[in-house]
Amino acid sequence: MLEDRNRTSHTYDEETAMDMYERIRTHYILLFDRLLHEMKQRLDSST
Asked: How far apart are CA 7 and CA 13, in angstroms?
């Protein structure tokens, strides 16, 4: 994910942007959902 972010931070190519969109939509969103779930669990267990 970090490599993709670094690669696209100064990319203005539409094909690269669409490729990144697809990766976010199909892969990275799942990682963020897992992170959110983990954070909520940790918050609940600390209270």
From this structure: 11
How far apart (Å, rounded) are the C-alpha atoms in residues 11 and 22? 16
9 pLDDT band (50/70/90 cuts)?
A: confident
Q: How many domains does the chain have?
A: 1
Whether 5 and 20 have beta carbons less than 8 Å apart is answered as no
Q: Which domain holds residue 26?
A: 3-45
Q: Give CA separation, 44 vs 37, 38, 41, in Å.
A: 11, 10, 5
**pLDDT of 11 over the 80 cut:** no
> What local confidence, expressed as pLDDT, does residue 13 receive?
87
